Amino acid sequence: MKVDYEVAIDTVKAMMAEPASALFDPQNCPVRDVFAHIGDKWASLILQILGLRPHRFGELRRAIPDISQAMLTGTLRSLQRDGLIYREVFPTRPPSVEYGLTELGQSLLGPVSALVVWTAEHHGRIRQSRTQYDLDNPPKKKKL
């Protein structure tokens, strides 16, 4: 997905033209509202995995071994609530459940994938910057 930066900049300008209270009010800010869910590390991983094909809960859990069952369940519910994924229950014994991307979720794959690629390309530089910052700004010792 190619980003039209002029459109993106015009959108930001239009948002900035709104009263400041709307931009900084979490109840009214669309960026905060959506990023609170899709900006989460687990959500971006789940979206990437479901972008390959639908998965069952156990498959998702195995694909992201460091996520807890509760966190996976909560993130899936959040993504489903936002209309980004669907949950399909199959009438088997025991019932099996499959998760996949909706059309809206598919439309988010391009931007999320671009961010994942950018992160992979720049991770080394970011880690170097963090190391240098930590060297230049050692923690202050607490006074007793």
Automatic annotation (TrEMBL):
SUPFAM superfamilies: Winged helix' DNA-binding domain. Residues 29-127 form the HTH hxlR-type domain. InterPro entries: HTH_HxlR, WH-like_DNA-bd_sf, WH_DNA-bd_sf. Coiled coil: none annotated. GO terms for molecular function: DNA binding. Keywords: DNA-binding, Transcription, Transcription regulation. It comes from the Bacteria. The keyword Transcription regulation applies. PANTHER family: TRANSCRIPTIONAL REGULATOR, MARR FAMILY, TRANSCRIPTIONAL REGULATORY PROTEIN. This is MarR family transcriptional regulator.
